[in-house]
Each structure stands twice: as structure tokens, then as C-alpha cells.
Write a structure and sequence with these properties.
CATH class of the largest domain: Mainly Alpha
CATH architecture of the largest domain: Orthogonal Bundle
Largest sheet: none
Structural class: mainly alpha
Distance between the termini: 82 Å
Radius of gyration: 22 Å
CATH superfamily of the largest domain: EhaM-like
Shape: elongated
Number of strands: 0
InterPro entries: EhaM-like_sf, NiFe-hyd_3_EhaM
Order of helices and strands: HHHHHHH
């Protein structure tokens, strides 16, 4: 019985140390702090430390190291959703069918690229998208 207790204690210690290591990896990454953890903490109205702990508990080590790539994908995906809403693409394409899905996808992609890759101000990139939509809608 003593051996089983020791094994359980070793397992608990391993889990605790593993969690601490993952927390340190995540905390030390300035990009993740600024672009992932702080915004999520603000959105959920919880402490940044709590967000980091959630990530550390839910992810394995490999996923912790890959978070930067996931964050970049998330940034583009979330921005695409914002563009959809700001330009009404979901209405015009998905519900009313006034613009083909492929055209809406292209407009969204161009706005996101202009903003993220070419560093245009969001409103300017959005205006370009708006002009593309108007042109498509007025075509006969």
C-alpha cells in the first residue's frame, strides 16, 4: 500500500511541476501575453494569470509551443468575422445571395490582407472592401 501511495504522490508532483513549467513557458512569451492572454482576460473579465492557467491546464507542451502560430491564425480568422459584420457580408452573401460566396470570401481576404499584411488602417481597408461590394451590387 505504501508503494501505491508513493506512485500517486510522484504522479501528483509530476502534474504540478508540468503545470508550473507550462505556465512559465506561456508567461515568458511577450507576444502571447499581448496578443492572446491580455485580450482574452479583458474579454472574459478575468485575471491574466487565470487565463494563462486555463491554457496551461488544457494544453500539452507541444501545443503551448505552437500557440504563436495558432494566435496568428486566430487573428486572421477573427478579423475576417469582424469584416463580415462591418461590411454586412453575411447579410449580402449568406442570407440574401446578392453577392456570391466566392466574391464575399475574396473581399474579406483582401480587407484582412490590407490591414494585417500591408498595415493599412482598418477603416481604409474596410472602405476598399465597401467599394468592391458596391461595385458588385451595381453590376448588371
Amino acid at each position: 500500500m505504501v508503494i501505491m501511495t508513493e506512485i500517486v504522490d510522484i504522479d501528483k508532483k509530476y502534474v504540478e511541476n508540468s503545470l508550473k513549467q507550462k505556465m512559465n513557458v506561456l508567461k515568458d512569451n511577450r507576444f502571447l501575453m499581448d496578443d492572446v492572454f491580455i485580450p482574452i482576460a479583458k474579454a472574459l473579465k478575468i485575471e491574466v494569470e487565470e487565463v494563462i492557467e486555463i491554457f496551461a491546464k488544457k494544453l500539452d507542451f507541444a501545443s503551448c509551443y505552437e500557440l504563436h502560430a495558432y494566435a496568428e491564425q486566430a487573428k486572421m480568422g477573427c478579423l475576417g468575422r469582424k469584416v463580415d459584420i462591418d461590411l454586412g457580408l453575411c447579410w449580402l452573401s449568406d442570407f440574401f445571395g446578392l453577392i456570391k460566396k466566392e466574391e464575399a470570401d475574396l473581399i474579406r481576404k483582401k480587407v484582412v490582407e490590407s490591414y494585417l499584411l500591408y498595415k493599412k488602417p482598418y477603416k481604409e481597408a474596410l472602405e476598399e472592401g465597401r467599394q468592391m461590394i458596391i461595385k458588385l451590387l451595381k453590376e448588371e
